[in-house]
Amino acid sequence: MSSLESKHLSHPEKLRPGAAVLLGALGVVFGDIGTSPLYAVKVSLSGFASLNEQHILGVLSLLIWLLTLVVSIKYVVCIMRADNQGEGGVLALMELAKAKLQGRRKWIYTTFGLIGASLFYGDSVITPAISVMSAVEGLGVVSHTLEGWVVPLSLLILACLFAIQSYGTGAMGKLFGPVMALWFVVIGALGLWRIVQTPQVLQALNPVWAVQFIAEAPWEVFLLLGAIVLAVTGAEALYVDMGHFGRSAIRRVWFGLVMPCLAFAYLGQGALLLRDPAAIKNPFFLLAPDFMLLPLIVLAAIAAIIASQAVISGAFSLTRQAVQLGYWPRMQIEHTSASTEGQIYLPRVNFLLFLAVMLLVIGFGSADRLAHAYGFAVTGTMLMTSLLAFRVLPLQSSGFRRLIWLVSLTVFLVIDVLLFSSNTLKVFEGGWLPLGIGLAIFTLMITWNLGREKLHEALSEEQHSLAEFMQSLEDYPPVKVPGTAVFMSMLYGTVPPALLHNLKHNKVLHEQVLFVTVQTARVPYVPFHERYEIERLNHSSWQVQATWGFKQEPNVPQMLEQLAQDMPEINLEPLQISFFMSRQTVLVVRKLPLIARFQRRIFAFMARNATRSTRFYKIPPNRVVEMGMQQEI
């Protein structure tokens, strides 16, 4: 293996899921769904005027079977098969769905993917707020005088969480993994203790209770789905974070520990309520005997922090995919692991999430109020994932297997439509929040993508053939200076504006010239040996097309180092290279309809605030010559 190849980060799916990887997955991936017992049963049953056995067993049966169908079967068994070279998430799935499609059908699946991604950001904002507040509200069980401390303590805990994000998910997993293992064991043991006291709660495992409940009160159950769905929040994070730890690790941890402990915790709360319906005021914390209450509150607060980590990690991963696929401006992306590609930190995303979560805690003030807003984002993303999977998974099989996939995915789609429809009724009770966040993110994604297309069209109209231009320079050669010039070009095969400006103002050309165009593949990882394609233009100039996957960060100097090994005739000594880049200032044409002009102004603003291309491509600033230019769109 070459020194360059040894630097190439490994994909997590290629790692053997040993104890460290399993513990890391437990700490980062399962926090969100693992803290749902804090509020799911309480919110689902608190709407009944008087609780009886039918209510409790019916809701519990619905909850357990929803957890089984949606998380265990749909996500862990089925959806995780739709991986893009080991990567999960709605954008990775979108790229699979768009494969070999053109025109309108391609845009339909693009829309599904972008809607799902946009709603996931709403989930990323709500989850930290509701999880931490639910845990801290346990203080109210100890003493009513402590209820006033819920918001300040929640703000403090969340501030600490966002402050340590730069240490990365690997460090998070090492710290959080043992805590989450303890959390699941504790809630499972407490639930089992209550089940032993009231074993009739085990009747809820029989789906007949759920079916009877639906048959007797279909409209009430439809409304209840908006609350019961809180038990499956975090399912999408399992899929998004698959690229961090691998499919095998997530499956093993889910079936081996998480699912059994969650089932015990939910059934235990039901057992408690069968004995004492008044415990509905906080059935989770009342699971514990008095001497364990304070330790459980502390453990719940820590687990809530970890719950937030699952969606924060997912937001980082999703944003990088959006940047590389051309749906979001360039952003600073930092690797936090020397061995695993998927573990990253995005400072700007971290700050925006921090700001939004803080405002949410202050604005809503309690977990119960936030619960109305929660389900809309979660079920919307789940629905988009199912629609995309309906295109991808059946194509991986044929014959009878394909029929099985179509039937299974149809069932999942029906469930998702019911869950989403139930939550749309809560738009005016708090659902407007994730809807607003999702709509804003979706608009910005579409604006950036369309703006890039318009910019490319405008540049293409003014471009000339690079091969013909370089041939003309052979006929009328400019003054040559020592060294190698690397011109970064947006469009392959065309003359980069920086070259024209250099010849116009400096009237010189380097002895050797490379024209480099960077493109993003529709797969997450491009092998190191397939990094570039090179074409000779004449005896002293070449054009290079460099390709990275949408889960990789372009590193042009590293690519040139590889090129120097493969083609030693090109002088690529770092101190002999000068990089020439165009910096476009986007101007908006005034003679446009109001909406189009406004959208292009948003694009221009986003372009001005994008991370500099020198930093994004890892190019040393002291080797860069930047040529400014203006471009109307």
UniProtKB/TrEMBL annotation:
<dbReference type="Pfam" id="PF22776">
    <property type="entry name" value="K_trans_C"/>
</dbReference>
<dbReference type="InterPro" id="IPR003855">
    <property type="entry name" value="K+_transporter"/>
</dbReference>
<keyword id="KW-0630">Potassium</keyword>
<comment type="similarity">
    <text>Belongs to the HAK/KUP transporter (TC 2.A.72) family.</text>
</comment>
<feature type="domain" description="K+ potassium transporter C-terminal">
    <location>
        <begin position="482"/>
        <end position="633"/>
    </location>
</feature>
<feature type="transmembrane region" description="Helical">
    <location>
        <begin position="55"/>
        <end position="77"/>
    </location>
</feature>
<feature type="transmembrane region" description="Helical">
    <location>
        <begin position="349"/>
        <end position="367"/>
    </location>
</feature>
<dbReference type="InterPro" id="IPR053952">
    <property type="entry name" value="K_trans_C"/>
</dbReference>
<comment type="function">
    <text>Transport of potassium into the cell. Likely operates as a K(+):H(+) symporter.</text>
</comment>
<keyword id="KW-0633">Potassium transport</keyword>
<feature type="transmembrane region" description="Helical">
    <location>
        <begin position="432"/>
        <end position="451"/>
    </location>
</feature>
<protein>
    <recommendedName>
        <fullName>Probable potassium transport system protein Kup</fullName>
    </recommendedName>
</protein>
<feature type="transmembrane region" description="Helical">
    <location>
        <begin position="292"/>
        <end position="312"/>
    </location>
</feature>
<keyword id="KW-0813">Transport</keyword>
<dbReference type="InterPro" id="IPR023051">
    <property type="entry name" value="Kup"/>
</dbReference>
<keyword id="KW-0812">Transmembrane</keyword>
<feature type="transmembrane region" description="Helical">
    <location>
        <begin position="149"/>
        <end position="168"/>
    </location>
</feature>
<dbReference type="GO" id="GO:0015293">
    <property type="term" value="F:symporter activity"/>
</dbReference>
<dbReference type="GO" id="GO:0015079">
    <property type="term" value="F:potassium ion transmembrane transporter activity"/>
</dbReference>
<keyword id="KW-0472">Membrane</keyword>
<feature type="transmembrane region" description="Helical">
    <location>
        <begin position="175"/>
        <end position="196"/>
    </location>
</feature>
<feature type="transmembrane region" description="Helical">
    <location>
        <begin position="403"/>
        <end position="420"/>
    </location>
</feature>
<keyword id="KW-1003">Cell membrane</keyword>
<keyword id="KW-0406">Ion transport</keyword>
<keyword id="KW-0769">Symport</keyword>
<keyword id="KW-1133">Transmembrane helix</keyword>
<dbReference type="InterPro" id="IPR053951">
    <property type="entry name" value="K_trans_N"/>
</dbReference>
<feature type="transmembrane region" description="Helical">
    <location>
        <begin position="221"/>
        <end position="240"/>
    </location>
</feature>
<feature type="domain" description="K+ potassium transporter integral membrane">
    <location>
        <begin position="22"/>
        <end position="471"/>
    </location>
</feature>
<feature type="transmembrane region" description="Helical">
    <location>
        <begin position="252"/>
        <end position="272"/>
    </location>
</feature>
<dbReference type="Pfam" id="PF02705">
    <property type="entry name" value="K_trans"/>
</dbReference>
<feature type="transmembrane region" description="Helical">
    <location>
        <begin position="107"/>
        <end position="129"/>
    </location>
</feature>
<dbReference type="GO" id="GO:0005886">
    <property type="term" value="C:plasma membrane"/>
</dbReference>
<feature type="transmembrane region" description="Helical">
    <location>
        <begin position="373"/>
        <end position="391"/>
    </location>
</feature>
